[in-house]
Structures are given as C-alpha cells and as structure tokens.
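Tokens as discussed.
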C-alpha cells in the first residue's frame, strides 16, 4: 500500500476516507444482521406505492383499452373495500405468525446450539425479504383503501382498478412466500445448514482480509518493540470489532513511528488497559512525548473500534468460535449429541484446510519505501487449531467418535499446510491427543483404531515435511 509522507494536509482527505470505509463496513454488517431494516424499507415503499398508483389510476383508467381493462379489478367501491380489507386483515395475521416462527427459531438456535448463531439467523436475507413483503402488502392495502370512494354526497365513485389489482397480486405473492418461508425455515434450523453458513462466513472473511501464500511472498520481519515504547490504552470496553488499517498506516507515516497493535480483532478490551505500542522509527530518538505523542495516541485509539458483540467483518476467529461452541454444547450432558459435535468438527476441519492457503499470523503494513510501520495482531493457524481442538478434547476425551474426528482433522490439515511452524503445531496437538487417548479406558479394538489414526497423521506429516 503506497503512502506519501509530504505532510498532514495531503493525507487529511484520504485518512478520513479510509476511516469512513472501515467503519462503514461495520455499520453495514450491523444493519445486515438486524431484522428491521429491510422490512422498514418495504413499508416505506408500500406507502409510496399506495399513494402514487391510485394517482396513476385517476389519470389513465378512463383511457385503458377494453382488452387490458378486462384483466383488472372490475368491481365497485364496496367490493374494492372488501378485497382490500380482507388482504390487510389476513396479511397482518400472517405477519404475526411469521414473526412468531422466527422468534421460536431464534430461541431454538440459542438454546440448542449457541447464542452466537443468532446473528446468522437475523442476517438471513430470505427471512428479511419475506417479512418485508408481508408488511408491505398490509400497508399498501391500507393506503389504497383510503382512496376508494362511493358515488354519494356529490362525489363521483372512484375505484383504483390498477391499485386494487396490484394489491391482489401482492396477496398472491405473499401466499407463495409463506409456503416458501416455511420450507426455508425448516431447512435453516438444520445443523448442517447452520454450519455451512458459518463456514462460508469464515471463507469470505479470509478472502477479504488475507493474502494467499502463493500470491504474496512473506512480508518484512516483525519489528521488536523497545523497552521504552509508549503505551496506547483502549478508550472503551467491549470486543475489538474493527481496526482502521489505512488510518493507522497514515498515522505512523505522518509521525515517523512504528505502531504495534497487540490485540487481534475479536479479543475483549477494557478501557484504560494497553492495546498498542508506539515508538519512533528512527533508532535513538527515545520515547514519544509532547504534541507528537498526543497526536499519535489519539489517532491510534480512534482507529480501534469496540463493540458489544463480535462480528465477522474483520474477525478471522469468530466463525471458529461459533463452530466450537456448537461442538461444546453438543457434548454437554444436557444435550449429549456427539453426532452434532462431529458435524461441527467436520466444518471446522474444512475451514482450517481452506485457511491454510492464506498467510495468517501478524500482519505488517509497510510504507512506500518498504519499511514496516504497523504490526497488527492476527490469529495464526496454531491459534485457530487450539481454538477448534482444545475444548472439544477437554469435554469429549471419553468419546471415541470425537477423538476419531479430531485425529482425522489433524491428518487432513497435515496434507494441506506448507509452513514448518504449522506442521509443528499439528505435531504438538497430536501428542496432546495421544496423551488423552492413553488416559481413557477404551477396549483394545477401539484403542488400536485410534492408534492407527495417530500413525496416519504422522505419515501425512512425514510426506509433506520431514519431522525432526
């Protein structure tokens, strides 16, 4: 990412633009994961259509050809009121039913799997659009109903034929949408569907944020913070949900410093607790002080956004946290569903194998001269492997099916990783799994099968990377 260091004035516009884009992504993700924005837009559109289409009727109904008019609503004012009233009454009932089913599904997902899946359900575009259609049809029918007039008290009868016909078509579309919604809801509450959604989110986040190992060479060496580096503390408490990378790079270039963000996106931060370090890029300058330090501190703290919940916008580990929670909940005594736990480990293994193609670990941002300016903490593959395998091993150590899937996951991962440190992480996790197996009272046949799986992992490691 090339940068210019000609002065603060030159960077002002780009700094603001970069920060706005980063925070805009967080806002968009927040709106996408809520049920109300799309239905609200549907209601607004329905009001506008309910006002404008009757106006169109008053202008063109008399000039419509007979052939076309035969397909439009042909009843009088009383019939139009009955049709519109029936549509409005039925649609508000259907909308209430849809909301109730959605809330029941959310409650089921929260109690049966993990509360962290609620965000995935709320972001379901099909549910949002179905609710928008139902509410829009209800509001449209009410809005058109107010324009229907009888021929009395000196006023001419007015029946908006096009508007009533549109209401009828919206009602038919709502009936079809209700049937599709019920089928969609049944599919959505299946654990396989939920796990696929989470795995897709992991892949999209990685593709958006990370570089591929094959496409990009390794970056600069990670600079080591000096002992007298200045400390930046968090402004607010919560989860670190986004980091404005461009704003941090510009702040480092403008002040000629190196910035080290010590907390990865997704970690919990506390106001007043250190989250970053800063030190002069030129050796021997000593610690930062005065206005220069205040400016850098404020810009670094402003580039780190905290929220009350984790999101997948910049959080590589959030999807793995969701998958692991599903596995752990399935292994709890109250649920006792090892099959679901194995399904969760299947998705975790597939996601880890896909992430092995990306360059994980600390991310280094350089200036136009190639000098390291910003170091960002990111989870590495060993960190994600510990997240995926640690708690399932703790709670599922006595279940051969869980141990079998964990060993199979290590073998699959051993075939796709290319970096030596990743192979070492797999070998370390294998040793821990073998100790857990040795501590269990399995029958000889089961133990022999698990030992064979452990040997398969070693063979995969040996073929890809000589152990030693």
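Sequence:
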């Amino acid at each position: 990412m090339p940068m210019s260091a000609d002065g603060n004035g030159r960077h002002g516009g780009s700094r603001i633009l970069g920060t706005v884009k980063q925070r805009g992504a967080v806002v968009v993700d927040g709106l996408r994961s809520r049920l109300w924005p799309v239905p609200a837009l549907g209601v607004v559109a329905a009001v506008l259509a309910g006002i404008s289409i009757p106006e169109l009727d008053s202008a063109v109904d008399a000039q419509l050809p007979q052939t076309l008019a035969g397909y439009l609503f042909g009843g009088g004012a009383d019939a139009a009121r009955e049709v519109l009233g029936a549509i409005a009454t039925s649609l508000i009932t259907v909308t209430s039913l849809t909301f109730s089913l959605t809330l029941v599904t959310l409650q089921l997902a929260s109690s049966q799997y993990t509360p962290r899946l609620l965000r995935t359900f709320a972001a379901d575009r099909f549910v949002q659009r179905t609710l928008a259609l139902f509410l829009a049809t209800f509001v449209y029918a009410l809005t058109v109903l107010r324009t229907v007039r009888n021929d009395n008290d000196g006023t001419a009868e007015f029946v908006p034929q096009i508007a009533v016909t549109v209401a009828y078509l919206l009602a038919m579309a709502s009936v079809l949408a209700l049937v599709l919604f019920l089928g969609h809801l049944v599919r959505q509450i299946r654990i396989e569907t939920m796990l696929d959604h989470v795995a897709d989110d992991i892949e999209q986040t990685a593709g958006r944020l990370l570089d591929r190992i094959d496409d990009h060479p390794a970056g600069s060496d990670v600079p080591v913070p000096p002992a007298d580096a200045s400390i930046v503390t968090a402004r607010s408490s919560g989860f670190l949900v986004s980091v404005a990378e461009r704003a941090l790079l510009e702040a480092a270039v403008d002040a000629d410093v190196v910035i080290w963000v010590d907390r990865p996106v997704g970690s919990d931060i506390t106001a007043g607790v250190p989250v970053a370090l800063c030190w002069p890029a030129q050796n021997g300058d000593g610690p930062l002080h005065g206005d220069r330090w205040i400016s850098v501190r404020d810009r670094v703290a402003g580039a780190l956004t905290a929220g009350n919940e984790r999101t997948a916008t910049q959080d590589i580990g959030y999807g793995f946290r969701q998958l692991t929670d599903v596995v752990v909940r399935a292994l709890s005594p109250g649920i006792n569903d090892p099959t679901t736990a194995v399904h969760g480990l299947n998705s975790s293994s597939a996601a880890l194998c896909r992430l092995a193609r990306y360059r994980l670990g600390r991310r280094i941002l350089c200036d136009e001269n190639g000098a390291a300016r910003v170091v960002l903490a990111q989870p590495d593959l060993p960190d994600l492997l510990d997240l995926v395998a640690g708690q399932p091993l703790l709670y599922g150590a006595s279940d051969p099916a869980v141990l079998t899937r964990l060993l199979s996951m290590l073998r699959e991962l051993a075939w796709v990783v290319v970096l030596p440190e990743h192979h070492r992480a797999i070998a370390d996790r294998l040793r821990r799994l073998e100790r857990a197996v040795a501590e269990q009272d399995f029958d000889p046949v089961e133990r022999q099968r698990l030992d064979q799986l452990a040997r398969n992992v070693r063979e995969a490691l040996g073929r890809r990377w000589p152990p030693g």
